[in-house]
Amino acid sequence: MSTIIEQKNRLVEYFAQATDWEEKYLLLIDLGRQIPSLLDSEKIESNRIKQCTSRLWIAGNYVDGKMYYRASSDSQIVAGLIAIPIFIFNEQSPTEILQTQIDWLQAFDLQEHILSTRLTGFEAGVKKIRKIAEDYLAKL
Description:
Elements: H1 4-16, H2 21-34, E1 56-63, E2 66-73, H3 76-89, H4 94-99, H5 104-107, H6 116-139
Helix pairs in contact: 1-3, 2-3, 3-6
């Protein structure tokens, strides 16, 4: 299993193969297709990210000491954006997730290429992912 930092670095390398932002968008869309999606029955209000201009739902489970996240969105770009923290945080412990701070905008050069409204939804999604980990940690 890779650490959070190793996963982040792997994703940074994945995006570095793009020569321009059009290619990065395609990689982002491809990444969004790789994350596990929610069942229709999980697309409930408590899983919805209301700050996102598109429809986005995130859920997670704690299994054998690790967190496993999944998400669904009606936007391919939003699905790709939220796939970044899901890819990085899946199979990590809640404690590791909560102790790790990542400057998402800088690490993935998002601030200049993604609309601010999408970034607001992305940041709310990251908070939801962290909140799910926090809630599971509190139950232990």
